[in-house]
What does this fold into?
Amino acid sequence: MDAQAISIIALLAGMAFGAIAAWLAARGAHAKSVEAAVARTQAEMGAELARITERSAQQDKASALVRAELDSEKQARTSAENEVARLNTAFAELKVTVENERKSAEEKLALLDEAKQKLSSEFQLLANRIFEDKSNKLS
It folds into this structure.
């Protein structure tokens, strides 16, 4: 092998070594760029996760308040329904009482009318007897 062939081999080896070094350097720069992009993306995702977590916590609080209000409204409705049922029962009882008292009053009025008729008849008979007695005494 002559010196020229060795020079060419050395030149080719040097070029290959340079190419490999350049490739490794580019790969390292690209890796750093990718790592930076990954870090930025992770930071953005972390911030987004924090916003979503905060929004979720706010919605959980709002949901709890709505559930508590719904429970309160359900209790109020149940209470109102119970009161309506109680009042309906009391109303029905009062209707029965009023009807019974009306019937009793009608019966009493009928008895009073009957007694009035009897007293009127008795008074008429008594007046007729007195009139007859006086007529007989005068004659």
